[in-house]
Each structure stands twice: as C-alpha cells, then as structure tokens.
Amino acid sequence: MIDPTSLADKAALVIGGSGGIGAATAELFARAGARVAITHRPGSEKEAVAKAILAKLPGKGHAAFPADVADTASLIALREAIESRFSRLDVLVNTSGFTKPVPHGDLDALDDEFIDRMFAVNWRGQFAAIRTFATLLRASGDGLIVSVSSVAGSSGNGSNIAYGAAKAGIDVMTKSLARVLAPQVRVVGVAPGAVDTSFVPGRGAEFNAKAAAATPLRRIASAKDVAATVLACATHLTFVTGTTIRVDGGRSL
What we know:
Structural class: alpha/beta
Distance between the termini: 40 Å
Shape: globular
Number of strands: 7
Strand order of the largest sheet: 3-2-1-4-5-6-7
Number of domains: 1
Helix content: 40-55%
C-alpha cells in the first residue's frame, strides 16, 4: 500500500529556506522522505545559517544554494544546480519575501524605491522563480508549486499597503498559473496571518499577545503550522489547485 504522506523519490526546492517558514517547511518535507534544496541570499552570514539548517534535516541528499529572487540570472544558475544535483524537481515552495511596518495613513513613507523593491521581491521574485522552474516541474508530471501569500492580500491590513498589494498579486497569480500549468503542475497559495517569527521587524511578544487575543483559536501561528499546510498540499490535498488556503486561526472571520 502506498503511503500518502511519503515523498520518497521526490525533490523539493524551498526558496527562502533559511527563513522561519522556509526552514520549517524544509524540515517537514525532509521528514516525509523528499530530497530538499533550500536557498539563501548570497553572503557568508546567510550561507552559514543555511548550512546549519541543512545539517539538521533528516535523511540524505539535501543541498543549499545561493539565490536572489530579484535577480533572474541567479535563479537560472539555481536551476542548473538543481538539474545537476537532483536531475528533477517535483515541488517548488516560494517562501522568500520581506516587509517592514509602515502606517497605512503615511502615504509619503511608501516612496517609489520602497514600492519597487517590495514588488520585485514579494511578487516578481515568486513569479520569476516559477517561470524559471516551470519546465522541470512539468517534466515531473505531478508537479506542485506552493507560494506563501498573506491574509493581508485579501484583508487590506498588514504591515504596509504595498505588501498587501503584492500578496494580492500572489493570489491572482496562483489562479492564473493553475489554469495554464495544469494538468502537469498544481499551483496553490498558503496565506498565513500573524506568525511567531522575526519576519516583520519590530513585532514581538506584545504584538503577538494582542494578535492571539483577537484570534478565535487564541494563539498565533507557528512557522510549523504554516509548513504543515504546505506539506499537506503535497501529500493529502492532491485534488487542490488554483486556491489560496488561509492559515490564520480564524482571525479573518
């Protein structure tokens, strides 16, 4: 009998795998039997973090590579490295991104440079990664793309207006690409609410406590909560495509 939770013989790439959600996702995929590649921003400090994460992954055959989603040339180099190391790709998980808190009423703080960088990393970067790896994923015959979005993309709240707009773009991209890449590749979005990581600068225990009190399940998500949803897309939710799954404990109700 085939174990539906096993990803043995599968290869998964977690872009942004040195971050909180990315690292948790890499661990769960490795535990399910996949060979996992994670990426990190170029630079010795980020490389050291990625290597430490890699060393803790169960199983064998994992790898870490430098990549900058805002630089398509580095994504093409990453594809060549994946082809050389794994000869295939079955799952692409887009977790790379950044943000910073900007009051929604402070329109002048969202200058052109900041907006352009927000979209270059949080939207264009995810699309560029998918564009780069689409051929490999199609060749799998059972490919999966999971892009990490945010409830900010549908609520209009979040760390800043540009971030919410970029994540709304991820949700639309998920629908569009699910149509054009089917049936060989499924495309799913995962939209967390507040997550207990250092992703948003300046948010700590006080913010987390307030967010938990406003959440029906009375806590905020852990990185593993989000990673478990990503894993479920690869193991149990195999007839799901073109949709974005909220992981917010009901806070958006």
